[in-house]
Amino acid sequence: MSRTVNLGGTGLTEVPPLHAGIRELYLHDNKLTALPDWIGDLPELRILDLSHQPLTALPDALGRLSSLEFLYVSDLAIQVLPDAMGELSSLRYLGATDNNLPVLPESLGRLRELVELRLYGNQLTSLPESLGGLTALRELHLDRNPLAGVPGTFDQLSELRVVSLRGTALTEFPVALSRLPRLRQLDLRANRITWLPDLGPDTFPALEKLDLRWLDLPVVPEWVHQLERRGCLVYRTAAGQ
């Protein structure tokens, strides 16, 4: 019995019967518009790839996949992520990019094993405060969302290493991120930030790369220069020199 089923790019319009013992299921690049509820009855499933097809909704049954570690649901026709996704207690990676999602469910904050979250290319204007509960998160990618800001609870994400906020609608510098003890890379390119706050000497204690390009910053505060003297690579345009 094969533990991997790869049906990606085969033109499927419906999911065929599957044996309950599979661990990896690849259904990407097909023509599926719906999933059967029995998709949740795969107790050993670790990887599920549903990306790049006209799926209009994800069933609540996905929440029953208690062993799932990697979920790919990018480039679909979905409008929401179901609340039941907060039940995926083993999930380590979630890729839900390029879906035009306007909101995220509060339940995502219960994904305590999540290490990487990719949400770029959606229509998110805000993020739930509950995301501060993602205590294992190391990478967060939010590029190309019309975000007005990030929650203050983000200062609880003590394991974060990489945050990408390129091309969002930020007008204020996300101060909550400056207190993260392990953050190494922060990308703020192409935002609407025109002013950087004065921060203390302990700002970004582990930062190795800060990208401020394509921001209109007539003045750069001392803490940015301190980062550079410490060896952090700071990218900025001529106006911010």
UniProtKB/TrEMBL annotation:
Pfam families (UniProt xref): LRR_14, LRR_8
Keyword Membrane assigned: no
Domain Disease resistance R13L4/SHOC-2-like LRR residues, every copy: 84-190
Gene3D superfamilies linked to this entry: Ribonuclease Inhibitor
InterPro entries, A to Z: Leu-rich_rpt, Leu-rich_rpt_typical-subtyp, LRR_dom_sf, LRR_domain-containing, LRR_R13L4/SHOC2-like
SUPFAM superfamilies per the UniProt record, alphabetical: L domain-like
Alphabetized UniProt keyword annotations: Leucine-rich repeat, Repeat
Keyword match Repeat: yes
SMART domains on file: LRR_BAC (SM00364), LRR_TYP (SM00369)
Source organism, top-level taxon: Bacteria
Identification of the protein by name: Leucine-rich repeat domain-containing protein
Annotated organism of origin: Kribbella lupini
